[in-house]
Fold these 2 entries.
Entry 1:
Amino acid sequence: MSVGVDFDTVLDLHRSLLEGEGQDGALTAFLAKARRAFNANAIALFSPDAVGSTDVQFLSQGLAAEQLATVAQWTHDDPWINRRLAMRLPMDTGMVTLGSSYLAPHELRRTAYYSDCARQAGIFHIGCVLVDNGNQPGGLPRMHFSLVRPEDADDFDAQTTTKALQLLAPALRASLLVRRSRAWQSQAKASVIAALDGHPVPTFVLGVDGEVLFANHAAQALMRRSQHVRITGGRLRGVFQLNAHGFAAVLASCAANGASRVGLWAGDGEAVATGELLLTQSQDIRLRSVWPGMAQVMSVTVDSLASVKDRLQAVADFYAFSKAEQAVLTLCSQGLSPDQVAVHQGVKVSTVRTHIRSLLEKTGERRLADVVGRLTRK
């Protein structure tokens, strides 16, 4: 091969592409390295058929801003592309054109491309490989990798440069496919997160063992304004009345049944909140593409806080609680045990338990915690 483009150099370029995994920085570094290897004054990787845009997509080295603007403006009218399209000549992926097989300098001088582009951008000796012809299902738009030398420089050596470009083209295409896939994943993640953040219900994406992978804006607001959602070491360890053990049981139930629904309640002595926890094993491929380790999606619906006194009076009127029963329920909603209620009221524990049984019978509930939950139910 010509000076600076030996076999080891091509292998090094090939390796830098594959190891770069399509990162923009790696592609830029590759272009700089390839420019030196091919002794080109400019080098560009571009698509004149940018997806979803009329703009030319460019990665380049050696082109000043004004040169790049000129090339971008005229690439759609590239005479070589137009001539091949007009003559229905094949444009196969991996095809290499150099020097006069592209367009000789005297041909460039007779075209608007030369007068308005080549002269300004210094493009005379051209080497090009078609990285992708844009016709393959799931492929890229039409992508060109081009080398340029000025008018007073030697043309590219056909044999050695062709072999080098043919070796590099598959690695370039693979690198660009990875780059596009990463861009699509980034766009998909942004779209999914925007959709979840726009949801008014507090929503958590959970991994294994309650690891919090994501909490939407409503969930973050709930955590800021109350202590009813408890996270330790990045894992959810309590929700309202559910402690770590209780929440672990809910996770296990969801894993076994695909979903789990639990009523919630919590009180702080002045106000009471109730709600509902819904835990599901979502199979949404969009969510799993963003969070591969996702195990469950949890939503928490919370009623508005209300004073215990106002809610208790409404519930007491509805179920015809006695004054003694109301007093017991108020103290229990503040977290007191039956023994503590008895001491507070100056009565026997058996009397308190009698009132609790009456509360359960009147409301049809089986647990005192569920009676407390009725304090905010309409």
Entry 2:
Amino acid sequence: MVVLKMMPIATARAIRAGALAAALCFTAAGSAQTQKPIEIQAERFTFTPSKVTLTLGEEVQFRLTSEDTAHGFRVLDTDINVVIPKRGKGEILVRFKPEKAGRYVFECSRMCGAGHNFMRGELEVKERRQP
């Protein structure tokens, strides 16, 4: 797991507009790579989307935002465990490259209210299809 950066919303909008999109294709070491972007929103005891299908070995970049309070984002059986800032305070970008096929559960790791224990989702990692 690599946490790329947390940025204010205004900066995030500029990046999404395309001005700096190419900059997100570099790893911390500076080598060029592409990651499939996946946006996940946290809000009132749910993640949207709550189910994401990935391909084994394909690196993805989660763009995590909250529509209310700060939430956690933990993927069980990995080292991913970050805090998503509350609405208006930015976003967090996390890279993930699944190394085994199967099901990974993600959940809120920060107490966020009465429905916190129900705030879960699933990453389904499928084998790469052979041509």
